[in-house]
Amino acid sequence: MSSEYAPPPGYGEHDRPVAVKNGAGVAGLVLAIVALVLCLTVVGGPLGLVLAIIGLVLSIVGFRRVGRRRATNKGVAVTGLVINVVALIAGAVITAFLAAGLAYALNNGGSEAWNCFLDANGDQAAVQQCVDDLNARAGVQ
Q1: Distance from CA of residue 121 to its chain's centroid?
Q2: CB 63 within 8 A of CB 77
Q3: Which of 3, 13, 52, 138 has its CA at 20 to 30 Å from residue 42's CA atom?
Q4: For the segment 49-78, what is each residue's pLDDT rounded down to a tens digit?
Q5: What keywords appear on the UniProt entry (predicted)?
Q6: Which pLDDT value is given to residue 60?
């Protein structure tokens, strides 16, 4: 006796869902998020810039794996690419501002002030004298 009902569609051996895999794309996205957060802080700008470069490379590798059908989550790789580019721009801008500020400080008495503070060796009167001298040179009353 044969059955009138066919098995429900989509439950055969060939219809199993494909496991999402794209380690490079996921790593690129994680580095992109960390790099963006670091780039938005003053101290983390240069480190965020380095992480964004590494994340960009990993995101590109993940995107290329999707094109070769070795990975399935294209969205993760594309999101990593976009966020890494934003982090690169933010990191470059913040690093440029830090470098310009440092150059300005060194060219306008910053190194002499630093040496004065080091020579003061924690003596508050000597530190205050350094501050007073720096203010006098800058014309601050």
Answers
A1: 37
A2: yes
A3: 138
A4: 889 999 999 999 988 888 888 878 888 889
A5: Membrane, Transmembrane, Transmembrane helix
A6: 92
Q: How far apart are CA 69 and CA 88, in angstroms?
A: 28
d(CA 55, CA 64): 14
Domain residue limits, the chain? 21-138
Q: What is the CA radius of gyration of the chain?
A: 28
Looking at the chain, how many residues does it have? 141
pLDDT at position 116 over 90? no
**Cα–Cα dist 43/91, whole Å:** 11
Mind listing the pLDDT tens digit for each residue in 31-43? 999 999 988 886 7
Residue type, 39: C
CA distances for 63 relative to 31, 67, 86, 97, 135, angstroms = 15, 7, 17, 32, 55
Q: And the tokens for 21?
A: 């895999």
